[in-house]
Inverse folding.
């Protein structure tokens, strides 16, 4: 793609990816792009855990164990689909947020900063020719999953997984919403 806007407007989520994943130099670019996200108060709330190669499929077991512990086991078809999907994924980045420990900055703002960082990673991966997919499946909202991935349950929040690799199939066109359906103008009230 020839320009920044061609890349930006051409990005789409690509769930089904395979090797090769990003090289170390490409991963460096993706992670540096992440840390260019806005960060009110310079809290640096981003927490990322790299899961690569043969360790990726084990993420399913983490989610399965958390579901059983919560008394809400994942349905077997969902487990089977997750195993099939992750069997080919070369890199997963577990996503976490550590809000301002001093409480100066609202935790929601730190969560937004991590969301912006993930969007930067999605765009960077796309610009490098990779497919990427942000998933909140596999027990993201179950107790124990984030902790199993190394996030401190007392002061960090697990926010899902970012899978990155080479698209298995060429992504097809996707219908995008018209921005006009989501935007309105505001005008100051007239003084009376």
């Amino acid at each position: 793609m020839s320009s920044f806007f061609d890349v930006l407007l051409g990005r789409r989520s690509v769930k089904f990816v395979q090797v090769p994943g990003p090289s170390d130099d490409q991963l460096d670019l993706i992670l540096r792009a992440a840390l260019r996200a806005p960060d009110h108060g310079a809290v640096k709330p981003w927490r990322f855990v790299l899961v690569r190669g043969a360790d990726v499929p084990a993420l399913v077991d983490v989610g399965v164990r958390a579901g059983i512990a919560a008394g809400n086991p994942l349905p077997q078809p969902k487990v089977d689909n997750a195993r099939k999907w992750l069997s080919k994924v070369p890199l997963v980045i577990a996503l976490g947020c550590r809000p301002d420990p001093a409480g100066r900055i609202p935790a929601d703002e730190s969560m937004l900063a991590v969301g912006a960082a993930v969007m930067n990673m999605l765009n960077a991966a796309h610009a490098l020719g990779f497919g990427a997919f942000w998933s909140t499946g596999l027990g993201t909202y179950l107790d124990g999953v984030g902790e199993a991935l190394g996030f401190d349950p007392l002061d960090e929040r697990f926010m899902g997984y970012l899978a990155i690799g080479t698209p298995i199939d060429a992504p097809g066109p996707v219908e995008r919403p018209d921005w006009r359906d989501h935007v309105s103008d505001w005008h100051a009230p007239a003084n009376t």
The chain has one domain: 16-169. The domain at 16-169 is CATH 3.40.109.10 (NADH Oxidase). Helices lie at 4-10, 24-34, 58-69, 76-86, 107-127, 145-148. The mean pLDDT is 94.
